[in-house]
Every structure is written in structure tokens, then in C-alpha cells.
């Protein structure tokens, strides 16, 4: 059973998962880079994420560590943060 949606708050599926959880009253969490940075700028404080050092890869690694499962959505091949996530599994 799900108890929390964990995400780094990046644009796309990461943020959509957080938004869906919040709209449903479901708990959220996760780690994001210091400064709450994402591809589209600072991550809104609405998302209760913990800032950690080490940049995007460390954020991804920590979220994999803190999760019991990971959902990955892709079209043709893995790259960038999605590829890094698979390497940390």
C-alpha cells in the first residue's frame, strides 16, 4: 500500500505526481537540490521537499534510497535523470 509520494519536484512526471497526491490529500516528500532548483526555475514551497547538497544526481539517488518503489515513464530510450534513476535502482 502506498504511504507517500516521493519525488524530486522536477518538471513533468515528477511534478505531476506531487500535484496529484496533493489534490487527493495524499502525503508527499522527497529531496531536491539546495536552492530548490528544477529545469523551470525554483520549486514552489507548496512541495514539502528537503534540500540536499550534491546537485541533481544526489537528489535522484536519495529519492531512490528513500523509496520502496520507483515508477519510470519514457517513450523510446532513457536519458538524463531518468537514466540516472535506473542506475541507482
Automatic annotation (TrEMBL):
Pfam families linked: cpYpsA
Top-level taxon in the UniProt lineage: Bacteria
InterPro entries xrefs: cpYpsA
Protein name (record): Molybdenum carrier protein
Organism for this UniProt entry: Marinobacter salinexigens
Species classification: Bacteria, Pseudomonadati, Pseudomonadota, Gammaproteobacteria, Pseudomonadales
Amino acid at each position: 500500500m502506498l504511504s507517500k509520494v516521493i519525488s524530486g519536484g522536477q518538471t513533468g512526471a515528477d511534478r505531476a505526481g506531487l500535484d496529484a497526491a496533493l489534490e487527493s490529500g495524499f502525503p508527499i516528500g522527497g529531496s531536491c537540490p539546495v536552492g530548490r532548483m528544477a529545469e523551470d526555475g525554483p520549486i514552489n514551497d507548496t512541495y514539502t521537499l528537503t534540500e540536499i547538497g550534491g546537485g541533481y544526481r544526489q537528489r535522484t539517488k536519495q529519492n531512490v534510497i528513500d523509496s520502496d518503489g520507483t515508477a519510470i515513464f519514457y517513450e523510446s530510450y532513457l536519458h538524463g535523470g531518468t537514466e540516472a534513476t535506473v542506475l541507482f535502482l
